[in-house]
Write a structure and sequence with these properties.
By secondary structure, the chain is an alpha/beta fold. The protein is built from nine helices and eleven strands. The longest helix is centred in the middle third of the chain and has 17 residues. The radius of gyration is 18 Å and the shape is globular. The structure holds 1-O-phosphono-alpha-D-mannopyranose.
């Protein structure tokens, strides 16, 4: 570990960057990350909660990486230890939360889409995850919804309405995956995790949704990071090899 680049960290989004969306990491990518970690500090920052990140990156994820930021860093782990968490419940209070949840569930109840399953709102520590089809749909149903949404804009239309209706709550709505969107207070996007990285003068961030409106946009644009847009996990490996491993004996 002593040979690692001092003050430099490579920080990765999960879906579309280290794995295919909502799929498990490949053994090849795990091996690559292991190799990379020998030359540079490595962290991951995902919009998902720790349970889903562990399903994708493995049950030992919090010790496999130097930093693991779930829910954008609203839950933070360093060297396998919990170092911070944020609570949406404390921040908004029960009344505002209830107002938002009630309205959203009514909206979904009236929504005419081909199929609905269960778990329309997932209550996480620092955010709500809202899914018009319901989170416990199958992989096939999830893929179908994503296609349907691209044509009918179910999520963008819903987000536009909620943004207007709840403007007073100063919330951010982020469409980061296939079937849902995340809702959290302004500023609690992926830049939130940067507060845990004050020891690093060079923060390389890799993500696929770096465009405006994507859930990697704010951290990609941040003055504190050097942003890299990737098109797939293979592209992540290629870009990291060129940046960190070319010329390295590891
Ligand atoms: O990591 C991106 C997103 O992954 C999931 O999205 P979906 O289930 O819609 O594909 C969710 O965990 C979401 O919170 C997260 O931002």
């Amino acid at each position: 570990m002593a040979a690692r680049m001092p003050g430099v960290i490579a920080l990765f989004d999960v879906d579309g960057t280290l794995t295919a969306p909502r799929k498990a990491v490949t053994p090849e990518m795990l091996e690559f990350m292991h190799k990379l970690r020998k030359v540079v500090t490595v962290g991951v920052v995902g919009g998902s909660d720790l349970v889903k990140i562990s399903e994708q990156l493995g049950s030992s994820v919090i010790t496999d990486y130097d930093f693991v930021f779930s829910e954008n860093g609203l839950i933070a782990h360093k060297d396998g230890k919990h170092i911070g968490s944020q609570s949406l419940k404390t921040f908004l209070g029960e009344d505002k939360l209830k107002e938002f949840i009630n309205f959203t569930l009514h909206y979904i109840a009236d929504l005419d889409i081909p199929i609905k399953r269960g778990t329309f709102i997932e209550f996480r520590s620092g955010m709500l995850n809202v899914s018009p089809i319901g989170r416990n749909c199958s992989q096939e149903e999830r893929d179908e919804f994503e296609k349907y949404d691209k044509i009918h804009n179910v999520r963008p239309k819903m987000v536009a309405l909620l943004q207007e209706k709840f403007a007073h709550l100063h919330l951010t709505f982020s469409i980061g995956g296939q079937i849902s969107f995340d809702v959290f207070p302004r500023g609690w996007d992926k830049t939130y995790c940067l507060r845990f990285l004050d020891d690093f003068h060079e923060i390389h961030f890799f993500g696929d949704k770096t465009y405006k409106g994507g859930n990697d946009h704010e951290i990609y644009e941040s003055e504190r990071t050097i942003g890299h847009t990737v098109t797939s996990p293979d592209d992540t490996v290629e870009q990291c090899t060129a940046l960190f491993l070319t010329g390295s004996s590891s």
